[in-house]
Amino acid sequence: TTLTDGRLASGMHGVLVEDLQRTLNAKVTPPPELTVDGELGPGTERVLKLFQKQAGLAETGVTDAATFAALGPFVPAGNGGPEPVASKRPADSLDGPPIVRCKSWTIGDVATGKLCGGDQADTSRDFASTTKIMTAYLALNAMQATPTLADEVVTFSVAADLTPGSTSEIRAGEKLPLKELMYGLMLPSGNDASVAIAELLGSRFAPPDGKNEAPPLERFVAEMNRTAQALGMSQTKYVNPHGLTHSEHKSTVNDQFKLACAALKLPLFRDLIQTARKDGVVTGPGGYQRTIVWTNTNKLLQMDGFAGVKTGTTSAAGACLVSLGSRDGKEAVCVVLGSTSSDARYVDTRNLFRWYWRETMK
What we know:
alpha+beta, five-stranded antiparallel beta sheet, two-stranded antiparallel sheet, 11 helices, 9 strands
């Protein structure tokens, strides 16, 4: 990064941005846990504005002399000095669950809802695109209640098309049946698809509490929260249908376990999450047709004994995974939030399932 005008701003990248991210992690309260990746994207810009607010500065999301002064010297990549040699910690116990890299996890039986173990299982965290489990759950319940709804045509709005992040690659003005769009939601984790579904179905639901009127998207999100409360997900708050980062959009692994168990009671949900690939056909203005290939982001589908459920990744949430595993006629759901990388979430999940099967099949 070269500071031609003495500022760091959105879109810049490099080691100075890494220094900024590291320093924001140390100076902002509560710690934002930014990923130190050297990219000044929306997440870093949001935290920078929060720092400026806490420091009594204009919330521009751009560093200037006043912001640099308030930040003080950048926090170094190391710890700033040599550490004394620490005494050895006790050896790892041979009992209990495996050592994992995720921040929170839980695992339990699908049929009974009984949990076998967990760590920070009731700690609220960002949960990224695992949000779409609830989006799918509401849509599939609506289709189950009104079967003709499955064939209702969804026409993509500009707002849906412009939704940032992971995409189903459907363009504004193109259309397809709702039942087909569900694959664009869950396989490639289409943020755009989640908005299109919410816009279509939102008018079926009541507005948020305290409002007499609200647009369909707000009604849909309100229904997500009402459904969460009905399922006993007391520590979950939905702000959007896709999981893009928001300070109030939080859940816990225990709450996501409850939702997954409820969703797995729907045969259509099971079919959806186990689909590795789906070819979707959309129709555009004037009648042209276009084929889109949707591939499931869940790498565990490539292994026997695993059947979904949903991946999720943002800088704030880390790598997340809700998984369905089966062995000898029994099923379990494992939820991991905040793994350190995409590969780490799969390793964490596999190790937890191995431990779970050993514990429950003794």
